[in-house]
Specification:
mainly alpha, three-stranded antiparallel sheet, 13 helices, globular, binds glycine
């Protein structure tokens, strides 16, 4: 061979090797592995708690043991919802049996009027159950729950009140998490043909968009409103690092909430807001390479602080939703980001081995770090939104 040709060939081979990125696992195989593991862990959890009347999984306690709650904890609906998603992906009688058993355990949530979390609790459980089975008995339970939640809405405030504690400090506290209760209310309006639940939803989402966000589209955790003037008198955090910081899960609730509102109402202002929140999250300089956020984007001592896999799962699920409300390059950008997050969560860094992690699916979430509670642990809502994200991605890919 001519010397020059040989040299060119060697250079070409070297350059090719230099550019060689490791081959990525096909996304179909990532999804399959994630869903299989979720089913295995979900069934192990379901069997472990089967005889413990009324109990539902929460997290792991500081001693490493499974911590459970009854229906009154805000997370009670996530485990039944996780089982419904597994059933959707693999409709076997055993999954349906356990999904129904654990859904029934949260029925009494329908009477809760002391907190705003009724939407989380009933829509993840009964809502998914109804979507998949059309069981007519679930309708009354959800409508009763929507009426209970409606009692927390005050016409003159135009918002659903989130919490009743700290009354000496907060006159009318609304937390960003409350956006997650709105899909339930929209469902109630459709199911009853009564616009009142939808009206509450729109008013709450509009006021939250006006008052919860900073110019960079990050959000406060808690905004408390003056009950006389109806304007905010306090903006602060409860579970984040500082009043002016961006608590990771708060940003996750925000992107999920406004994307859902855009999907359900078709209102362009919600879509535009969701995109702005997405941009804040996706371009944040403190987002780690694997796209699983630290517990607060402004936590001091990053990178030596805990992650929050629950925030990653919620953001991934929201971005998949957003990718279906947008087109072309924009849609591809959201889809690609969510895929990266799902790849990370489905890696051994976050995905628990079968029969470990107290049968939760994901490791490394953070619930309430300032309260020294649930730091670097599994959480039932991380698992719920992870299985939801896998399910959404599977549908988008036509698998
Ligand atoms: N308060 C719900 C959460 O911890 O995100």
């Amino acid at each position: 061979m001519h010397k020059l040709t040989l040299l060119c060939l060697l250079v070409a081979i070297t350059l090719t090797n230099c550019n060689n990125t490791p081959e990525q696992e096909p996304i179909a195989s990532v999804i399959e592995r994630g869903l299989e593991r979720s089913e295995v862990q979900g069934l192990l959890m379901a069997k472990a708690l089967e005889d413990q009347e009324g109990r539902l999984p929460m997290t792991t306690d500081p001693g490493g043991k499974l911590k459970t709650s009854d229906y009154r904890w805000w997370c009670s609906g996530f485990f039944p919802g996780q089982l419904w998603y597994s059933y959707e992906n693999n409709p076997i009688p055993e999954l349906r049996k356990y999904a129904e058993l654990y859904t029934n355990r949260v029925e009494d949530v329908k009477h809760i009027t002391y907190s705003h979390d009724v939407g989380f609790m009933l829509y993840c459980s009964y809502g998914n159950g109804y979507r998949l089975t059309q069981n007519p008995e679930y309708i009354d339970i959800m409508i009763t729950g929507a009426n209970s939640l409606s009692t927390r809405y005050r016409e003159n405030m135009g918002l659903i009140r989130s919490w009743d504690f700290n009354k000496d400090k907060w006159q009318y506290p609304v937390i960003i998490d409350n956006m997650m209760n709105l899909e339930f209310m929209l469902w109630a309006s459709r199911a009853t043909n009564n616009p009142k639940y939808r009206d509450i939803t729109i008013s709450h989402a509009d006021k939250t968009m006006e008052n919860h966000f900073r110019p960079d589209y990050s959000c406060y955790h808690v905004v408390s409103y003056d009950t006389i003037t109806g304007v905010p008198h306090i903006k602060q955090t409860h579970q984040g690092f500082a009043d002016e910081s961006a608590w990771a899960r708060g940003q996750a609730w925000a992107i999920y909430g406004y994307t859902m509102m855009a999907r359900e109402t078709g209102k362009p202002e919600y879509l535009s807001h969701a995109k702005n929140v997405a941009s804040f999250i996706m371009n944040h300089p403190n987002m780690p390479e694997d796209k699983v956020p630290y517990w607060d984007f402004d936590a001091p001592e990053i990178p030596n602080v805990p992650r929050d896999a629950s925030a990653a799962a919620i953001i991934a699920s929201a971005l998949l939703d957003l990718s279906q409300l947008t087109t072309d390059e924009e849609s591809k950008k959201y889809l690609a980001y969510a895929e990266d997050q799902i790849r990370s969560l489905t890696s051994p860094d976050y995905l628990a081995e079968p029969d470990t992690n107290n049968n939760f699916i994901l490791m490394h979430s953070t619930g309430h770090l300032p309260g020294n509670s649930e730091v670097d642990v599994p959480l039932s809502y991380a698992d719920y939104y992870y299985v939801e994200a896998l399910t959404r991605l599977k549908k988008i890919k036509g698998l």
